[in-house]
């Protein structure tokens, strides 16, 4: 997949560990299996991508609407998945559960990798779709800059920015 595809998927999961598990996914599985909820969301995004290869501008709008409607569930499922795994005291069982989660969330993405690739290629080739995507990413970046109180630079620098903030968090909590 191209960098923009990974960037879009990365933006989806960026702040996931900051939320609690919620149950608003369509046909949501048992919330004790948050990786299944996340996988169900990825399946829905795959469907949007596959259905809109020929209509990239309406497709990127549908993609954004889905993200807006379900981001809290997706991020919550990401955080719930991490918490579920980290609560397992036995290292071997912990690792086995982490591998299971990895397979569950990767399965729908592997199954529709070509649809995602074709969709985001179509988006990149359509001026109106690119404008919609760029506007959305600029808004997200601006939101994060406002929330963090400093310039994040660009969405690409966010992981480093958040890592730096997480390093100082323990010191802030014990003051």
* Percentage of β-strand residues: under 5%
Helix proportion: over 70%
> DSSP helix count?
7
Assembly type: single chain
Coarse shape: globular
Contiguous uncertain segments of 5+ residues: 14-26, 171-175
Describe the structure.
- The chain is mostly helical.
- It is globular, with a radius of gyration of 17 Å.
- 76% of the residues lie in helices and 0% in strands.
- It has one domain.
- The C terminus is likely disordered.
List the helices and strands and how they pair.
Elements: H1 3-13, H2 34-51, H3 56-86, H4 91-111, H5 113-125, H6 127-148, H7 158-174
Helix pairs in contact: 2-3, 2-4, 2-5, 3-4, 3-5, 3-6, 5-6
Keywords:
7 helices, 175 residues, mainly alpha
Short précis:
By secondary structure, the chain is mostly helical.
């Amino acid at each position: 997949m191209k960098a923009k595809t990974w960037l879009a998927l990365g933006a989806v999961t960026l702040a996931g560990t900051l939320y609690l598990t919620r149950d608003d996914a369509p046909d949501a599985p048992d919330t004790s299996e948050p990786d299944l909820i996340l996988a169900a969301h990825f399946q829905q995004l795959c469907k949007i991508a596959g259905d809109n290869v020929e209509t990239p501008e309406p497709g990127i709008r549908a993609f954004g609407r889905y993200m807006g409607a379900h981001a809290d569930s997706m991020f919550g499922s990401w955080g719930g998945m991490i918490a579920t795994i980290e609560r397992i005291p036995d290292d071997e069982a912990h690792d086995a559960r982490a591998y299971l989660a990895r397979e569950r969330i990767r399965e729908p993405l592997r199954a529709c990798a070509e649809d995602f690739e074709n969709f985001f290629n179509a988006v990149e080739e359509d001026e109106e779709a690119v404008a919609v995507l760029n506007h959305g990413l600029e808004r997200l970046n601006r939101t994060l800059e406002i929330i963090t109180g400093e310039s994040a630079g660009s969405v690409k620098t966010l992981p480093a920015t958040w890592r730096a903030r997480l390093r100082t968090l323990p010191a802030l909590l014990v003051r």
